[in-house]
Amino acid sequence: MQNTNYKFKPGHPYPPGANIDSDGVNFSIFSRHATKVELLLFATSDSDDPFQTIELKKQQHCSFFSWHVFVVSLPIGTWYAWRIDGPDQSLLPGTRFDPQKLLLDPFARSVNDRQWDRMAARLPGDNRNTSMRSVVVDNSYDWDGDTPLFVPSEQLIIYELHVGGFTRHSSSNVTHPGTFSGLIEKIPYLQELGITHVELLPVMAFDKQDVPAKTAELGLENYWGYSTHSFFSPHPGYCVTPEQGTQISEFCDLVKALHKAGIGIIVDVVFNHTAEAGADGPIINFKGIAGDIYYHLDEHDKNIYLDYTGCGNTVNANHPVVTAFIINCLEYWVRELHVDGFRFDLASALARGEHGEVLHDPPVLWGIELSEQLAKTKLIAEAWDAEGLYQVGSFPGFRWAEWNGLFRDTVRRFLRGEQGIISELATRISGSSDLYENQGRLPISGINFITCHDGFTLYDLFSYNEKHNMANGEDNRDGCSNNLSDNCGIEGDTNNPDILAFRKQQVKNAYAILLLSQGIPMLLAGDEFLNTQHGNNNTFCQNNEIAWLNWDQLHDNTGIHRFVKLMIGLRKRHHSLMRRQFLTGKPMKNRVISDITWNGGSQDATLWNDTKAQTLVFTLAGKQKDEADLHVIMNMSDHSFEANPPNVKGKTWRLAVDTSAESPRDIITPDKQEEVSNHLLVKPKSVVVFEN
Question: One of 38, 345, 658, 691 is an active-site residue; which one?
Answer without folding.
Answer: 345
